[in-house]
Amino acid sequence: MTASSSSGSVQRLATVPTAPPDAILGLTEAFNADKNPNKMNLSVGVYKDASGKTPILNCVKEAERRLVDDESTKGYLGIDGLPSYREQIRALVFGDQLPADRIAVLQTPGGTGALRVAANFLVTQLSPIRIWMSSPTWANHPAVFSAAGLPTETYRYLGSDRTSFDLDAMLEDLNEKTSPGDAILLHACCHNPTGIDPTADQWKEIAKTVSERRLLPLIDFAYQGFGDGLDEDAAGLHTILSTVDEAIVCTSASKNFGLYSERVGAVSLVAGDSAAMKASQSQLKAIVRANYSNPPRHGGAIVAAVLEDAELTAQWKVELEEMRQRITRLRNQFVETMKSTGKGHDFSFLLPQRGMFSFSGLTRMQVDQLKNEFGIYIVGSGRINVAGMNEEKMQSLCDAVAKVLES
């Protein structure tokens, strides 16, 4: 029944239920309200330095200074974004593997915006279509796709030990369950939430199956440079592109440029020829126009300014490597410190993992205990943001993990 006020007007909003908190961002809200002085947030995927802050890269600071000095307008960008940004993203992601006239690149509000634009394109232009996602995958993937009306399915990714990649299970699901024309979501590197990536040979087998099953790859490439290096992290993507004529790639500058709040991403569509690219590009632009009309300028301008300048590019690569190496050190320190708790806890399975995240193997009950008793916030799946760890707090973190494992 619809409620009415004393004045007789209808109050339809009184019946709207409260939405459940976001699986990841909702934890940050709880973390911010937590009074525990020793609290630790290992949930949201942001990089933090030794002081616990998300830094602004020096190359970004310099690029911004130049932009402020040279800026002459706040006018709208085109629907597809800043041309210089799009050109730099095309070069960074694809190199010279494909001719430019087969790739449509649109600047988007973050990698999430890219995924939503891609999902809308699949629904409006290629229906009926469904998308296959790894189990597990980033918690927001199914929500974004479902919001666009894109049906979702899952394929197996982890082995029964929940610590290793099960290629045979993945290929079995793709061969037995998918249909030609289906889309498949692949993580180019630094798989979120597990940190477990296929090897080069495994990528070849995946690419062969994707091609044989005539699946359309939708590749989420949010962490380029956070795994093994800029070129190394693109190797799986390039292997896929060597076997198919069509693909969609969603990229983000949030992590590798530290531009989280600027919301800088891109959706790139690879077509079989120039004519198909131009037609698809027109449909992508129509989707954007009906959604946010055109992207914000500043973040894209920063990325373009860095990548167009050889000195700033060199500085960026050094800073990116420093972040990547620090994450590796933290992962190693966590493994070694867990050993030193004296309880025989072996987390060495984390060592081959890449990127910001590691799948800890902790159960939802153990995760809740860490939050309630120790103020340590981890996603319910057991995913840990390694980049949120702190060298000085590592012992207390490991002591807490050891206690919940033994309780």
UniProtKB/TrEMBL annotation:
What binding partners and quaternary form does the record give? Homodimer.
CDD domains, sorted: AAT_like
Which cofactors go with this protein? pyridoxal 5'-phosphate
Q: Which residues form the Aminotransferase class I/classII large domain?
A: 38-401
Q: Which SUPFAM superfamilies match?
A: PLP-dependent transferases
Per the record, the similarity remark reads: Belongs to the class-I pyridoxal-phosphate-dependent aminotransferase family.
Q: Does the keyword Transferase apply?
A: yes
Recorded superkingdom = Bacteria
For this protein, the parts annotated as crossing the membrane are: none
Q: Which GO terms describe its biological process?
A: amino acid metabolic process
Give the Enzyme Commission number. 2.6.1.1
NCBIfam families reported for this sequence: PRK09257.1
Q: What is this protein called?
A: Aspartate aminotransferase
Coiled-coil stretches noted in the UniProt entry, renumbered to this chain: 313-340
Keyword vocabulary terms for this entry: Aminotransferase, Coiled coil, Pyridoxal phosphate, Transferase
Q: What class of enzyme is it?
A: transferase
Q: Which GO terms describe its molecular function?
A: identical protein binding; L-aspartate:2-oxoglutarate aminotransferase activity; pyridoxal phosphate binding
Q: One Pfam family from the UniProt entry?
A: Aminotran_1_2
